[in-house]
Amino acid sequence: MNSITKEAAGVEHTELAADNALYIESLYEQFLSDPDSVDTDWQDYFKQYQSPNDAKHNAIKDQFLLLARNQTANKVGPASDNAAISTPEDCADPKQMAVQQLISAYRRRGHRRAQLDPLELHPRAEVEDLTLAYHGLSEADLDTVYPTSDLNIGKKEAPLREIIEIMERVYCRHIGVEYMHVTTSTEKRWMEKYLETNLGYIKFDEEKRLSILERLTAAEGLEKYLARKYTGVKRFGLEGGESFIPAVNEIIQRAGSYGTKEMVIGMAHRGRLNLLVNVLGKNPADLFDEFDGKVQPEKGSGDVKYHNGYSSNVMTPGGEAHLALAFNPSHLEIVAPVLQGSVRARQVRRNDQARHNDKDGNSVLPIVVHGDAAFAGQGVVQETFQMSQTRAYTTGGTVHIVINNQVGFTTSRQEDLRSTEYCTDVAKMVHAPILHVNGDDPESVVFAAQLALDYRHEFDKDIIIDLFCYRRNGHNEADEPSATQPLMYSVIKKLPTTRALYAQQLVEAGVIDEEKAKNYEDLYRESLDRGDYVVNSLVNDPDEALFVNWKPYLGHDLVDDWDTSVDIEKLKEYGHRMAKMPEGYKLQRQVQKLVDQRLAMQTGEEPLNWGAAETLAYASLVDNDDVLVRITGEDVGRGTFSHRHSEIYNVNDGSMYVPLAHISETQARFATYNSLLSEEAVLAFEYGYATTVPNALIVWEAQFGDFVNGAQVVIDQFISSGETKWQRVCGLTMLLPHGYEGQGPEHSSARLERFLQLCAEDNMQVITPTTPAQIYHALRRQAVRPIRKPLIVMSPKSLLRHKLATSQLEELANGKFETVLPEIDQQNTDQITRLVLCGGKVYYDLLEQRRALGLEHVAIVRIEQLYPLPEERLIAEIEKYSNLEEIVWSQEEPLNQGAWYYLAPHMFRIVVPHPTKAKVMEPVARPPSAAPATGSPKLHAQQQQTLVAESLGVSVDKLAE
């Protein structure tokens, strides 16, 4: 074993000689630099002692200096600094390593002994590795002095008794910290220093303690006031978790001192009304009016009071800051990714998108508040954590607060709630520190809030505060919780409130007397009676520069016609710019061919395909119209079907170049990101982004349109209904590849019928574009109109390269999006007796067969926009044909899916008042089916032939091969 045997070094006997100290210290240095450079036995020894990434190694040196002082395991009292070192046998101490292992055990496992539960319902099991015996120590060792240079307590050595007292105070009182799962040594050392220097808490001065009491009084006072005034009415009160209010207040004020200008909060029901009044500064009188039913929505449906958002400005030590509480539906954790998208957009607006590379970029802070059962149970939490450090979705770290009521609705048995010890264990997947804290110790809660904010500011990463508390009432105020949790609520009924406990603590400490503490309650209640604002830091005349002005985008009718033309020479110029690569950039052969072909298309030498037109739309928006463009989704850089290629790779070094980001020096931002394999969280993120930046085109593309069903919650509760519920406008664009290509049930349908069923009140737009010019104008229309509505695009697959699905450059330069495309071949309208209406890919199947069969009596009209349905234009098209005998709607989807059930009542209303010889309109579709499509290519082909033949009014055997 190098120059020292195992026996001599004491590895086998766990005894290290003091006169080998310098050698072993140098060996340890070598190990820190390159672990494999030392013998495996030494590696094993050093790994037990300290992390190989931890450069702090003074304790190694101190260990050998103290070997002579603690000559026996039973020695009492500190040794003299001048104690002589005699022989290795005299100074060898086998227990020093045991002490270090005990310290490490406290850091790693102390949280399992911490006093976290205010109810004390579940006694915690003995933690074996926090006992002396586990490490080969005993009470006889308590007065032996050991080095403490590895601790952050301001002294180099201390008796074991004192070391244990410090470890207990730091890691086992009312804060239990989990951070040893963090893989970065720097973060672990920072956490250890923060905790151990402060001995697990900060001793607050009297002013701070009184401010905590004042906020607790406000939190409790509002709930008591509402309980008396609106007995039994649902409000999802904060009783039992009142420490949440001073914690959030502390985070806001401390973040402001760091220069944060915006803080965005997302949370579900519990405590939301309390936060609105006592932190964001909503006028209590307005809240009471909502309870009294005096507030009615000016338009739309409105929403319940504990879903609504709010914004205000408050004063902090660093100046004025803007607070925003995100709107939230009942789907609990879904607000988390929505909030992250909003924060990212705000950071981009402040040139702060890459916070993780910008230590001064601290302008926008996300705060997400969770419930314990939802945090552990809902997959969107995991998806959002997985996004947190990715290039497309990072927001520089989020402060998470779990209001841990220790019960989910009526479920409190841990074996029913989750499979993990803590509800927060899922956060370990991103190595986020977790601060478990007893909610009945408000000072520890505020300390945890400070620690969390400081950590986030230092490392730009997520951190979690797990606020162990309880709910004094049931899931809502109409429930009787003792029916399902009799033992829990027998304890709760006897338990003084957090505010009462803390007030008594301050009285006993001489910080305040009982009369003044009672006066806090009276003053707050009087403020509520008067309807006064109860947030002292509220800014009554806010700085409007801190938030976005949406007024130019409000109050417009959803008009279809809009000028989306661009000078043709500019379009050609964009084509040249996108084809120009950096010097020395070598492309893969097929990509180079695509770039060359696209240049010919974009300069008018060849007809444009889908990708050429789409990228011209983006180029014109970022340069000509100064519109931010952001595109995300699975494989969007290349495009799932290899049509976009907005990201170009150098085959020599793998570097990536985005031509659309280099259109001009003054262009708006263009960004494209391949997302992680998530639909729900990613779509929610983009919705949040789109509701925050108005002058932008925010695009999410599904890999296959079918996959959008993984994000149905976002569509139902935000995209389709956010405007009517919350007056929250959004211009998000969704590209959903849709079309029956024989690829089976999960690669055919984007579930068009579901979107159409959700359409009402001009809430969104649903289109089925069939030409490159149409997608070009649709994307430009979406961005340049001063109207922000979600745009749902049933985008194609086979049409991306279809020989007939092309456009001329002049159509892009001069045209606009057409909601209805007329018949393109038949000029003699008098000979038309059969009119086929359709949308999407099926049009080209119909067109090719009609041409092949020479069916001059059949006209085909495309409805390119299904919602809002362009009824006047459809009527105009129908009225062109005075000799119609038959009108059919042709769709590829089964009859019970697709657009027919939506269209039928509209079409009857259109056709009947404008009679021709035609019968009432009839549908042609695949037979009704429980699945979207067949998995058999042969059956698919047969169904498609039958569909086309019936639509054209011919037999299948007449179809051209």
Automatic annotation (TrEMBL):
InterPro entries: 2-oxogl_dehyd_N, 2oxoglutarate_DH_E1, DH_E1, KGD_C_sf, ODO-1/KGD_C, THDP-binding, Transketolase-like_Pyr-bd. GO terms for molecular function: oxoglutarate dehydrogenase (succinyl-transferring) activity. Residues 608-802 form the Transketolase-like pyrimidine-binding domain. Its EC number is 1.2.4.2. The keyword RNA-binding does not apply. The keyword Oxidoreductase applies. It comes from the Bacteria. Its cofactor is thiamine diphosphate. Residues 922-945 are annotated as: Disordered. Keywords: Oxidoreductase, Thiamine pyrophosphate. E1 component of the 2-oxoglutarate dehydrogenase (OGDH) complex which catalyzes the decarboxylation of 2-oxoglutarate, the first step in the conversion of 2-oxoglutarate to succinyl-CoA and CO(2). Belongs to the alpha-ketoglutarate dehydrogenase family. This is oxoglutarate dehydrogenase (succinyl-transferring). It comes from Psychrobacter saeujeotis.
